[in-house]
């Protein structure tokens, strides 16, 4: 297997050197160039034809977002954003993911142990990006018809899990849902500083209300609850009209919050729930989705062709957890159709 040819774009000379040292330590990655700003990077992309680009978020001249938008329009390629863990960094990184960046890493800092952990994560994300499918930002899906929250979909609940590529997918899917859709609980893997900004950005573009979930909140139709990143998992307690529980605990399937934890709690609703597993690296959510299907829930997996990374849906499919594979553009209607076709058989 050939090394992943990587171009680093960052205005800080010291950060470029740090990233190069981290990436070059992995024998499966070759740093083919470093650019201090987007205009130099543009020429180097043409000359070097890299497999993956690491891109700073905030740079003088042309900022990372403007450059990313041009890249994804003119020459789509896997891009990993390199950001800081600040409110501003979160907002810009979320917009970058919406525009088509495959993934993001936080800029390395802290103790030697922190740096080592960051280096491992950076290398894994660059290698994963090289295997991903670059896309030119989210497509605008048609708004779905009203499902009648007090009609055939009453008592239903939707649970969704996603990771790498999930931000872009959710920006495509959620605006297509009607304002009276059943409650939706989502675990999207991202840091604690990102989830509130993510919910606010989605809320501005959707007919449904999108909020960062809080402990004890009662779930209601027409509302999407994004699990907060950080130290707790998100569970559903008390049935389709129950409450959200944010519980401390060790990472599950390598993540906290974990899709598996959410799905296992929703499985108690039986046929009163619909589960969907979207693009992402790894296997988080596979066992939980299987539990949902075994309990009578309808379960959907995003198709390989429309995933940025076909990891989580693949793992779920391989163990029989996915009832039906669906392309991203068809996912909103498939979810609503599954809600209309299921019958509430009781609550947890």
Automatic annotation (TrEMBL):
Superkingdom in the source lineage: Bacteria
Family under the similarity heading: Belongs to the CheB family.
Protein name in the entry: Protein-glutamate methylesterase/protein-glutamine glutaminase
GO molecular function terms attached to this record: phosphorelay response regulator activity; protein-glutamate methylesterase activity; protein-glutamine glutaminase activity
Functional description taken from the UniProt entry: Involved in chemotaxis. Part of a chemotaxis signal transduction system that modulates chemotaxis in response to various stimuli. Catalyzes the demethylation of specific methylglutamate residues introduced into the chemoreceptors (methyl-accepting chemotaxis proteins or MCP) by CheR. Also mediates the irreversible deamidation of specific glutamine residues to glutamic acid.
Gene3D superfamilies: 3.40.50.2300, Methylesterase CheB, C-terminal domain
Chief localization: cytoplasm
Record's comment on post-translational modification: Phosphorylated by CheA. Phosphorylation of the N-terminal regulatory domain activates the methylesterase activity.
PANTHER family: PROTEIN-GLUTAMATE METHYLESTERASE/PROTEIN-GLUTAMINE GLUTAMINASE, PROTEIN-GLUTAMATE METHYLESTERASE_PROTEIN-GLUTAMINE GLUTAMINASE
Enzyme Commission (EC) number: 3.1.1.61, 3.5.1.44
Keywords from the named record: Chemotaxis, Cytoplasm, Hydrolase, Phosphoprotein
